[in-house]
Write a structure and sequence with these properties.
Largest sheet: none
Number of strands: 0
Shape: globular
Structural class: mainly alpha
Amino acid sequence: METFALFIVVGFLAQAVDGALGMAYGVVSSTVLLAFGVPPAVASASVHAAEVFTTGASASSHMLHRNVTWRLFFPLAIAGVIGGAVGAYVLTGIDGEIIKPFILVYLAILGAWIVIRGLKDILPRHIRSVWGAPLGLVGGFMDAVGGGGWGPTVTTALVGAGKEPRRAIGTVNTAEFLVTIAISATFVWALLTGHWEDAGDLRDHAWAVGGLIIGGLIAAPFAGWIAKSMPTRVLTLMVGGLVLLLAGYQGLQLAGWVP
């Protein structure tokens, strides 16, 4: 029950920050799960199982507050679904111990980028709408492989390109609902076909998944309001710093320098 309560808190805080920044739920949740010794594929599947519920609630909130740019939503969502399905399939076929160091490096890079984004304003630059599909493809793939990364990849690129923050966050979070369903469906397909040999580990972390779902659902309805009203610089630095600390600690564990 202690693990369950802990992940309710993790899910709530991660989703609350995700509503403000357009990122953090997957990155923070995956990093915490990995810190608990959960294999990468199981961590990603657990987070995306929780996100099916939280992103649906978050998307509804953003649509209610009119934070979605629909002409951008469709290429992002379609390409994200493709990239996410490919990433999930690749991840379930790789030994977790082999890929974990690469996942930690990826999470550390995301954490550093989030910190940089909080320390200084990223200058707007022009980006053509044709880049929506490639951006969604990369974001979906990295989200599946890293257990999080859709928001840091896609939202950051859109805001950096000059997109109004609340509309970038709302559009990306709403598209993420479809991307998450595709990734979760791919994990289920890999489980049923025997492609995913370590899928049995999911049962051992059911309490964590349940906690992430409940905590995220409590915070998700406020996503649209948070995106419109909450200052983001301090939250950005806190999220980036947390991801860097957790990824660094796990790196030390892999090197055998800490227990």
